[in-house]
Amino acid sequence: xxxxxxxxxxxxxxxxxxxxxxxxxxxxxxxxxxxxxxxxxxxxxxxxxxxxxxxxxxxxxxxxxxxxxxxxxxxxxxxxxxxxxxxxxxxxxxxxxxxxxxxxxxxxxxxxxxxxxxxxxxxxxxxxxxxxxxxxxxxxxxxxxxxxxxxxxxxxxxxxxxxxxxxxxxx
Length: 171
Fold this sequence. Notes:
Mean pLDDT: 87
Largest sheet: 3 strands, antiparallel
Number of strands: 5
Strand order of the largest sheet: 1-3-2
Strand content: 5-15%
Shape: globular
Radius of gyration: 17 Å
Order of helices and strands: EHEEEEHHHHHH
Distance between the termini: 21 Å
Low-confidence stretches: 158-171
């Protein structure tokens, strides 16, 4: 769900040897440069929280992706209960953001609105301030527990390992 709907990342890398097959599977592939191609999220194969292409051919990035929380849980560094709590917190934050957008909007629209606010607004209207705060809270949670450190959206937090996990679960 969050990996494919644009919450976690805006885009996914397509291996060069998969570009033609990825396009045949209905993905809109963009060539960034001669060595890199991507497709943008939300993925058109996502139906609510389920991949409609799960049992079909998918790009390697789709079939092999594990977020950092999945890796931590698989390694025994996070319990399944704690992981489920973090996921519930992230989904709750995402829901609050989506409820503030026009019906039918994608999460990418929220990111675009945030960028527009950050680059043009000197004074924020209350609804803009709520969006900024909600996006910050969600991105902080995603950065700490779901994204690779080099893919963080916000400046790195100086949190002792484990302390951030316990605090996020209590939120």
